[in-house]
What does this fold into?
Amino acid sequence: MSFEENEISEKSKGGTEITKRSVAALIPEELSNEFQIIASRLRDIEADKIRIYWQHDLAEDPEVKHLSDPDSRARFHKLIFSSNWQLQEFVTKLGVPRDQKVAVIETPITPLPDVEKTFDDGIIRLVYMSTPQRGLSLLIAVFEELAKKHPNIHLDVYSSFKIYGWEDADKQFEPLYEAVRKHPQMTYHGFVEQDVLRDALTRAHVLAYPCTWTETSCRVLMESMSAGLMCVHPNLGALADTSGGLTTMYQYHDDPTLHAHMFYQYLEHAINEVKKPEAQQYLAFVKAYANTRFNLEKIAGIWEHTMKDLLAQYPTVESRAVAEKMFRYG
It folds into this structure.
């Protein structure tokens, strides 16, 4: 497989894997066979292939530290980054040069269907759909306070490390999950398949994502924008880049108390505003923006064009070779 799997990714159904597999499915096999495409975690080098190193991790991740060495970078014909913010981090922290070998190709999604948001039962549905360490504890604390004032809100939590095949990692977060289960205005769903989650998004109204994890790109935000949700989140990492400045975004604070206070204010604003016709009209615009910017077929086309250009530059096995000394980093 040109879009590689490794011991971590092969059992995972996380955002990186969904992205990789969805793009791979749209690339012609005869083109794809000329490439080794490594998503985040380098394990070995195929010397006869055109090598693309596709970044999904932070510049601080030990797995990508080797990119600070020019010899290691020289093994790859292209370095692809998932967001402009992420590229800048690699430039600043690892010294990756801005040259012809780097490019940003954004994370693609399949646009969600056009479904008119309704509030027939009077309930405003909030959703959290990321792994628990990314802000779930802060969300629960804030939601519990908001629920005292707003009996018409309900939070659906889709969160579990089962998405990566790491069931044991859920044990330390079990108290959080139990708090959700016990609250009458919250429902814990754990891990669900992507089609189930996408269906749930068509009925949700607000993405409640007080993210405390530095995202390099954010599929959660992209799909929520595409689903017509009012998205409440901080400006941490690539979230501002991903949002296009069109969401309900607030200043991130390292201090959890300050963060919770800010999130409470913005989330309550979303609860009060989301039912208004003018808000729904604006969210339809945001949806159209996300559907266009992050469209899977469009971005797969960029991948195909990039790969064809590389094939023209490196048409033979001999042209793809690298010096033997550079293999010591694998």
Q: What stands out?
A: The first helix runs from residue 15 to 24. The chain has two domains: 15-107+296-329, 124-293. Residues 55 and 313 are 22 Å apart (CA to CA). The longest strand covers residues 35-39.
